């Protein structure tokens, strides 16, 4: 008799500060923007204030109107997306960790809060998009972590429904850990060592790890049945 092994657990994983890191702060693009468009350096704070009020092509249309720039909001938004992606890189060992998990049969979905264009551009630019099976970005999903709906959507995009055997890995207690707990998932909190205690208002993770490659090794150790990938067994 041939029996199927249980399917491997799902891995839902955060993007920023978990798989990738961005150089510079949230306003680090504004000096380049001013230089590119012939604005004085002192305009940078105002550009950023206008941007923060509306992070979209419409927001950049307002910036263009404010400074009389001969560009559409869509063009400036595209430039911004490319700039944000260009200053984003994979964290050390992340491509190899994702490859090891997938080789062991783990379906992987990125679950991230943010703008769809920017988050997807980061994944493309860093080469991580082909390393995962699904991507859910809060803007296009219409829901954000820690809402369980976004985790269920990620599982649906993997063709599965969530079970308590599935995992969420991320660095943010307020979104990743709280969401995992609310959804009934196991969790790994990516946090520097020595590990500070989670804030008392947040749930305790199943495990902690200093980085995603360590978390991946932990997952593979926790689920030795996945080490050689999904398989058929013949007793
Ligand atoms: Mg994060």
Task: List the SSEs and their pairings.
Blueprint lengths: L2 E2 L6 E3 L6 E3 L7 H7 L7 H10 L3 H11 L5 H14 L1 E3 L3 H10 L4 E5 L3 H10 L8 E4 H4 L6 H10 L9 E4 L2 H11 L2 E5 L16 E3 L2 H11 L9 E2 L2
Parallel strand pairs: 2-5, 2-7, 5-6, 7-8, 8-9
Antiparallel strand pairs: 1-10, 3-4
The structure holds magnesium ion.
What does this entry look like structurally?
The protein is of the alpha/beta class. It folds into 2 domains: 163 residues, Rossmann fold, CATH 3.40.50.1000; 57 residues, no CATH class. A 6-stranded parallel beta sheet has the order 6-5-2-7-8-9, sandwiched between helices. Helix 9 links the parallel strand 7 and strand 8. It is elongated and about 65 Å long. The protein starts with a strand and ends with a strand. The C terminus is likely disordered. Bound molecules: magnesium ion.
Rg estimate, integer Å:
20 Å
CATH topology title of the largest domain: Rossmann fold
* Fourth CATH level, the homologous superfamily of the largest domain: HAD superfamily/HAD-like
The main β sheet shows up as:
6 strands, parallel
Rounded mean pLDDT is: 92
Topology pattern, helix = H, strand = E: EEEHHHHEHEHEHHEHEEHE
Structural class: alpha/beta
Instruction: Write out the distinct hetero groups bound to the structure.
Output: magnesium ion
Shape: elongated
Q: Residue ranges: pLDDT <50 for 5 or more in a row?
A: 229-235
Count the E strands: 10
What is the beta-strand fraction? 5-15%
- Please report the distance between the alpha carbons of the first and last residues: 7 Å
Q: Report the CATH architecture of the largest domain.
A: 3-Layer(aba) Sandwich
| Total count of domains | 2
Q: Level of helix content?
A: 40-55%
What is the count of DSSP helices, taking H or I runs of 4+ residues? Answer: 10
Q: Class of the largest domain, according to the CATH hierarchy?
A: Alpha Beta
Strand order of the largest sheet: 6-5-2-7-8-9
